[in-house]
């Protein structure tokens, strides 16, 4: 392996580790220690800790010492594969968590980490605490598992940290809306005696004492009155609660937070009565688990990526709405991304997302080569919609032109016999299909066509077609390729003094929102894209769960929506 090959290998490994790589990881990639030493001497690598290197081409990461110490807990495992509840696991905690949260100004020397099992370190700059860590007590900051602000306060008090510094941390967190005194007080009441307060002092009194030691007391407090009472009706309120916690659920249900945690993990051994109380508390509080914290344990992101081509001028909002709704109902968040390049390049980008666990699954609206979900998908949870090409132009079901014949039949029933079609761009399969069905259906139904105008989906093309149509053409109805073309046709006739629908009927396609509010409202074809998106997402969710693909189909994909722009022939 050449030096250039070694650097490329290390760069790939360090890409999602803040530009850092361990000796153990390099060895797994076939890079020997002597090669690392040569690169260090050449200036390409910098030793930033025992067995940890930084690529010189990468910018120095923030909180470097904390990241180095965390990597050294399990140096052979990539950061993306690390867990918080197994051998080699660890969470940034105590004063180091303060630094990661950017609160309190507490020192970060030494680095403090909490581990789940007994272990020691020879590094005098690192302190390891041993404690159980619930998923609700962990958040993710800059890619690192870090104790939440409330858990950090508890850890600091349990370690008898300096009162003034802890009070500064609490005050900063409250000022930024990251913690509420009322929520935190029950968790810290037991530490009041350790800080010289009376044995019966409340958690709120302890927190106020800490803030006073930091010179940051609650502004509205008066002597002899609890802070909550002293605030008064005109005082500034505490920050609005963002989401209920597992502790609140436990209090409401009358159980411990560990029992709630068992409930969230679907513990089958829980008593039905206990489960019912927790379910009721969860519903009443509208409690939602912290997915970012849970992902550190389950190694799942609880996110689904929806792929579009880069810089697309067309975004199928109804389809995305249906797909996202189905994902959210299943507990997933969705990210919509635009990926540049052709099928193979997009496929490589999708694989990178999945391998880095930035997404649990991918729904692509554009082709990805052989990388697709469903039959023969292999190991990757990917579903390609199949209704669009590389440029997000409709194909397949969405390009079906058969509704054009339904429009002709509908208008023929109202007495129309001579028609004009303003087509869309013939580069689109949907435009070609609508045009072909129109031509064939006119002949089959015994109707007449004045002709077909080659348009380009634009309002302008519709306006010009209406403007240029001879007054003696005999046309009484126009089929527009889409609603924008129909809008142009309507405006063109209005400028000519042709009344719609009394003298001319106009039919669009796509059921865009504006068609309902134009005067007259525009007759159109509704496409149930929302259900197409929903069914596609359900297929991906089944793939993620290892279940058979749903067999349901969108049976009412198209239907006509007659409105004010079309009506019976009056001449």
Summarize the structure.
With 571 residues, the protein is α/β, with parallel strands linked by helices. Helix content is 39%, strand content 14%.
Task: Describe this entry's structure for a reader.
- This protein is an alpha/beta fold and 571 residues long.
- It has helices spanning 3-14, 23-28, 33-42, 64-73, 94-101, 149-158, 163-175, 181-188, 203-213, 227-230, 246-253, 257-264, 272-285, 291-298, 317-329, 343-355, 403-413, 429-444, 459-468, 483-496, 529-545, and strands at residues 20-22, 45-49, 52-55, 91-92, 111-115, 126-130, 138-141, 144-147, 303-309, 333-339, 361-364, 382-384, 418-423, 448-454, 477-480, 505-507, 524-527, 558-561.
- The protein has a 4-stranded parallel sheet, with helices on both faces. A 4-stranded parallel sheet has the order 14-13-15-16, with helices on both faces.
- Helix 15 (317-329) links the parallel strand 9 (303-309) and strand 10 (333-339).
- The chain is elongated, with a radius of gyration of 32 Å.
Number of strands: 18
Quote the distance from N terminus to C terminus. 85 Å
> Strand order of the main beta sheet, please?
10-9-11-12
Biggest sheet record:
4 strands, parallel
Q: What is the radius of gyration?
A: 32 Å
Spans of 5+ residues with little confidence (pLDDT < 50)?
A: 219-241, 373-378
Number of helices: 21
How does the helix and strand content classify structurally?
alpha/beta
Fraction of helical residues: 25-40%
Mean pLDDT: 83
Topology:
Layout: H1 3-14, E1 20-22, H2 23-28, H3 33-42, E2 45-49, E3 52-55, H4 64-73, E4 91-92, H5 94-101, E5 111-115, E6 126-130, E7 138-141, E8 144-147, H6 149-158, H7 163-175, H8 181-188, H9 203-213, H10 227-230, H11 246-253, H12 257-264, H13 272-285, H14 291-298, E9 303-309, H15 317-329, E10 333-339, H16 343-355, E11 361-364, E12 382-384, H17 403-413, E13 418-423, H18 429-444, E14 448-454, H19 459-468, E15 477-480, H20 483-496, E16 505-507, E17 524-527, H21 529-545, E18 558-561
Parallel strand pairs: 5-6, 9-10, 9-11, 11-12, 13-14, 13-15, 15-16
Antiparallel strand pairs: 1-3, 2-3, 4-5, 7-8, 17-18
Helix pairs in contact: 5-6, 6-7, 7-9, 8-9, 11-12, 11-13, 15-21, 17-18, 19-20
């Amino acid at each position: 392996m050449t030096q250039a090959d070694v650097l490329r290998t290390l760069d790939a490994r360090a890409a999602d580790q803040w530009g850092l790589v361990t000796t153990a990881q390099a060895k797994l990639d076939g890079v020997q220690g002597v090669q690392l030493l040569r690169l260090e001497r050449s200036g390409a690598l910098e030793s930033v800790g025992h067995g940890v290197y930084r690529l010189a081409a990468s910018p120095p990461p923030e909180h470097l010492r904390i990241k180095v110490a965390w990597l050294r807990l399990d140096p052979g495992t990539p950061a993306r594969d690390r867990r918080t509840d197994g051998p080699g696991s660890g969470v940034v905690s105590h004063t180091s968590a303060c630094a990661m949260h950017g609160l309190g100004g507490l020192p970060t020397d030494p680095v403090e980490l909490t581990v789940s099992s007994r272990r020691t370190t020879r590094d005098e700059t690192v302190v390891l605490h041993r404690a159980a860590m619930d998923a609700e007590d962990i958040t993710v900051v800059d890619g690192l598992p870090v104790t939440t602000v409330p858990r950090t306060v508890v850890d600091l008090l349990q370690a008898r940290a300096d009162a003034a510094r802890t009070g500064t941390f609490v005050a900063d967190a409250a000022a930024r809306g990251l913690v509420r005194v009322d929520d935190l007080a029950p968790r810290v009441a037991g530490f009041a005696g350790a800080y010289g307060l009376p044995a019966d002092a409340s958690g709120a009194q302890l927190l106020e004492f800490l803030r006073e030691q930091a010179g940051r007391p609650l502004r509205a407090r008066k002597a002899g009155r609890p802070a909550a009472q002293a605030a008064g009706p005109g005082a500034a309120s505490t920050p609005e609660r963002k989401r209920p916690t597992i502790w609140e659920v436990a209090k409401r249900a009358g159980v411990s937070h560990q029992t709630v945690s068992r409930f969230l993990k679907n513990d089958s051994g829980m008593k039905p009565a206990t489960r019912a109380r927790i379910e009721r508390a969860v519903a009443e509080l509208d409690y939602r688990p912290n997915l970012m914290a849970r992902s550190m344990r389950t190694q799942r992101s609880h996110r689904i990526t929806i792929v579009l081509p880069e810089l697309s001028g067309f975004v199928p909002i109804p389809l995305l709405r249906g797909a996202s709704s189905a994902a959210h109902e299943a507990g997933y968040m969705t990210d919509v991304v635009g990926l540049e390049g052709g099928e193979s390049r997009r496929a490589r980008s999708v694989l990178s997302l999945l391998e880095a666990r930035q997404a649990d699954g991918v729904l692509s609206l554009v082709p990805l080569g052989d990388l697709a979900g469903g039959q023969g998908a292999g190991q990757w949870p990917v579903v390609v919609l199949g209704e669009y090409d590389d440029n997000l132009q409709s194909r397949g079901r969405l390009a079906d032109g058969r509704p054009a014949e339904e429009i002709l039949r509908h208008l023929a029933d109202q007495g129309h016999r001579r028609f004009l079609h303003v087509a869309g761009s013939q580069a689109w399969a949907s435009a070609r299909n609508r045009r072909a069905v129109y031509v064939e259906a006119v002949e089959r139904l015994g109707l007449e066509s004045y002709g077909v105008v080659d348009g380009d989906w634009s309002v302008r093309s519709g306006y010009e077609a209406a403007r240029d149509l001879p007054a003696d053409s005999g046309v009484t109805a126009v089929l527009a390729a889409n609603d924008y073309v129909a809008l142009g046709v309507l405006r063109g006739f209005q400028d000519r003094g042709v009344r719609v629908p009394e003298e001319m009927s106009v039919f669009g396609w796509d059921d865009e929102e504006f068609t309902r509010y134009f005067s007259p409202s525009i007759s159109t074809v509704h496409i149930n894209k929302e259900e197409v998106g929903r069914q596609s997402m359900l297929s991906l969710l089944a793939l993620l769960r290892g279940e058979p693909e749903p067999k349901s189909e969108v049976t009412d994909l198209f239907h006509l929506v007659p409105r004010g722009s079309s009506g019976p022939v009056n001449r």
